[in-house]
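Notes continue from the previous slide.

Worked example: a multi-chain complex. Inputs as given:
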Amino acid sequence: MPQNRALRFLLVSIYNLRHAAFSPALETVLAMNQTVPGEPLIVFKDVRIGFDEGDVLGGISFEVEPGETKVLLGETGSGKTLVLKLAAGLLRPDSGHILVMGHDVSEMPEKELLDFRRRIGFVFQEGALFDSMNVEANVAFRLVEEKVPEEETEARVREALRFVQLEEALEKFPAELSGGMRRRVSIARALVDRPPIVFYDSPTAGLDPVTSQTIINLILRGRDLQDVTSLLATQRVQDAFGLANYRFDKATGTVTRLSSNGARPDAPPTNILVLRNGEIFFEGATEELLHSSDQYLKQFLLSAE
Amino acid sequence: MLEASETPSLPSVLGDALKRQIFALQDYALLVLQSLKTVFTPPFYWADTLEQMDLIGVGSLPIVVITSFFIGGVMVLQTAAQFERFGETALTGDAVSLALVRELGPAITALLVAGRNASGIASELGSMVVTEQVDAMRALGTDPIRKLMTPRVLATLTMLPLLVAVFDFVGLIGGFVVSYFTLRLGAVQFWTRAIQALQLGDLVQGGTKPIIFGLIIATVGCYQGLRVKGGTQGVGRATTTAVVVSSVFVLVVDFFLARILLYIFHK
């Protein structure tokens, strides 16, 4: 922001005028939220994408039900991030179809995709916060773009930052935050508009175990308080077990462990999808992974011990 | 080690290189068109545009003022000796004025702005690309071309002609100061000749060129920044390429524009 007072005044006036002049395309956004009860929220149908070095994803198919958390587990370069970027329409597949909330994002023009993406949240691996903006402006970005009134924006930003326990960091810039704090701000930015779907790209990568657990707890809270359906890419099998074995108790306001007797009627479904060399190697519940005799899958379990 | 049969032939290497350049040119042209299209449809980012005007226009002012003063001065030093031989030192004002307004003003200002801002734009946008900030913007439902590129293009388009006007004026002041002290030319004599030497065609040349150059500098900077590959090393490469390509592009286009405008106004 320029230091010159007159110029700053002019900028603020123009900004306010812009707010008054253009109302949000609410109908467009609402029309994007087409979900059919009982139908999966995300569908991948034989999706293939490759680059110069060949196919990176070789025809994968899977579905994500409403309320489900699908954990994409895999080594570096197995194509986890690609799956998330394809689902958000940030990349287009070479072949196959991707349906998200009933929309074929693999064929949507970019202009419609921009409207569509306002209904989803995306947490990038390193946070991808705008480094020229402070925390408040980062979290408020989507609301400002949607011309939400200033007072409402401020309240919702505070609420989102309170959710990730970073209300005091409002004025700080990304460079002043630790890695864990940046991920938390990124989660607040993704959840501020209460999207029904959130994509998490390796939210615990490079973090210490305590901070990783804090991030997983936040994802749990987002899932259980806001009924978020999510796709979460990770290299850590602990993340998957954390999401499958715990839930946020609204009554007590704490994260509690689910019963381990096998019957979990109240548990939000958490399933694992293991990617290997661009193919789906395993798909199932955490219990199935735990009891698998496959050597490759056992390596993931051993890494968690 | 490669077998002889695996070694690509020279025509295929040249063909691939040519194909890559044509694809890059096509990609650049499409990006420019996309950006220009967003100028006419909402949402508009006027605040971002004004901020860029401040950075590009006001920020470039010191280097433009200093450079132009000395370029005006050195022109007098170089031309005075020739005019003295014919006893026509009064023509110094004409020479400085015509050279600055027609050619040196637009070209040198464009090169200065390319060095300062094409690199700045490419490195800023490039850093945003490698840290996934551009993807984050798209994921939040905002068009990065509209939000990042168009304000920079509009700001450079509008600021460069103003910077050229400042360059021409300060260059003439530099020329006058030096001619006053070396040739003992009076203010009235210098300024009268400098102003009378200019015709409509010269002003059109001086006003048209910076608009085209502004478009080149901003779009090349944005293109290089938004198409960065290869992490921080790629950002460094994009920054250098942005300056080199925009500077060469400006000088090549300058030649053709000069030819066209001279043909129109000085038949």
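Summary box: Chain B has one domain: 44-265. The two ends of chain B are 63 Å apart (CA to CA).
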